[in-house]
Amino acid sequence: AFNSSKSGRSPRSRKGRTRLKYHPVSSAPSPPASHPLGQLDCLITFHLLHTSPCPYQFLHSLDEHMLPPLSFELVATCSTTKARAATLTLPHGSLSLPLFMPVATQASLKGLTAQQLEQAGCRLCLNNTYHLALKPGQAVLDSVGGAHILQGWKYNLLTDSGGFQMVSLLKLATVTEEGVRFRSPHDDSPMLLTPEHSISLQNSIGSDIIMQLDDVVATTTPDRHRIEVAMQRSIRWLDRCIAAHAKPSSQSLFCIIQGGLDLELRRECCKEMIKRDTPGIAIGGLSGGEAKSDYCRVVDTCTGLLPANKPRYVMGVGYPVDLVVSVALGADMFDCVWPTRTARFGNAITSHGVINLRNAKYAADLTPLEDGCQCVCCRPVSAGDDIEDGGSGLGITRSFVHHLATRETVGAHLLTLHNVWHMLTLMRHIRQAIVEDQYPSFLRQFFADQYAADKTEYPDWAVKALRCVGVDLMDV
């Protein structure tokens, strides 16, 4: 049975009544300007800025502890489910939660420029430490000043630690207490990724959120002993990551909850990770082929134990149905390659499900990818409006993408633009529904749209998971 308690939630559940904030103890904010100490801070800073021979260098040399690298404000909670709306503030800007992160594995989102990603509304994307360590390498990252500069991205970055490659590149990896030994998929050269080296690489990347190196085991493994060893090792590796972290005042380290599908191991890991008091907490080791009902039990159990004043990141989740259910179970942040990867196979994500535009039935279909979508692809062409200012669109039709899908790379580019926009818009609608305390109604409409109001098509795992947090999709 699911954990029906709402421990970890705020005591109030209406819009505007909850204001839980988190600031790392080691980097408390400066006094406000209205405070006498705050006024003195401002006067001293103003004077030094105007007398320094190099004010920009002075700004970078200021004590980074004046401002925390992460603050979390819980704005509203659903009065029925465990869904939350929050504001997460990072060094490169504020973010509205819940959110979805597109994955730019090698400092580039396949098919999009940084400017196009910005225009889609993205303010946090994911880079992968393992791949950036191989190419361009740590020396280049240090030389250019980090991944923000390398990829021309002025907003926030999150880096995966490289632990997931233990599963995805299993034949190339060996795990010991020291770390993970990889063989490069590029040239077969050896690489040892330790907790310390992972953190050092992420310090060089300069991401706003960095992840601990964890021991990742496929959820489908029947070896409980191996899962327990991985969970305990992940706790020890977190301690090593914390000790090695050279930039805690500018980069926020998240721990990762492990334990496979064993709820007792998950509870034990939550207890130990919470003691370490990292700025945010991730739930890892999922989306690896396990049954969705098992996935839901793990997420529900973990969010029921985690503190309410920190962001909760469920790694590797990106299907729309999975997102809306996971939010109802109390999760805040998600990432996945699926929206961009599926675009390269000719698939458009819509509110009524995924459509494969390689199908011959779309050859003469002159409708947009999705009626009512406001992405640059779907918006009609308007004379005199500037596309970059959000006015005119490209007026792309299903027929045109069908024509391109199997012939030209521009087809994948257009579908990637649309799919990223769709995912980010979905998260905005989720947040709005939570703030208005209408999330159960949103869920009912979402499933009706996805499955053409045919309740016999609703996934059984989703129906059961939502029922356990107070929403019965089968109600008339």
UniProtKB/TrEMBL annotation:
<feature type="region of interest" description="Disordered">
    <location>
        <begin position="1"/>
        <end position="33"/>
    </location>
</feature>
<dbReference type="InterPro" id="IPR002616">
    <property type="entry name" value="tRNA_ribo_trans-like"/>
</dbReference>
<feature type="domain" description="tRNA-guanine(15) transglycosylase-like">
    <location>
        <begin position="81"/>
        <end position="450"/>
    </location>
</feature>
<dbReference type="GO" id="GO:0006400">
    <property type="term" value="P:tRNA modification"/>
</dbReference>
<dbReference type="InterPro" id="IPR004803">
    <property type="entry name" value="TGT"/>
</dbReference>
<dbReference type="GO" id="GO:0046872">
    <property type="term" value="F:metal ion binding"/>
</dbReference>
<keyword id="KW-0479">Metal-binding</keyword>
<dbReference type="GO" id="GO:0005829">
    <property type="term" value="C:cytosol"/>
</dbReference>
<dbReference type="Pfam" id="PF01702">
    <property type="entry name" value="TGT"/>
</dbReference>
<dbReference type="GO" id="GO:0008479">
    <property type="term" value="F:tRNA-guanosine(34) queuine transglycosylase activity"/>
</dbReference>
<protein>
    <recommendedName>
        <fullName>tRNA-guanosine(34) queuine transglycosylase</fullName>
        <ecNumber>2.4.2.64</ecNumber>
    </recommendedName>
</protein>
<feature type="compositionally biased region" description="Basic residues">
    <location>
        <begin position="9"/>
        <end position="22"/>
    </location>
</feature>
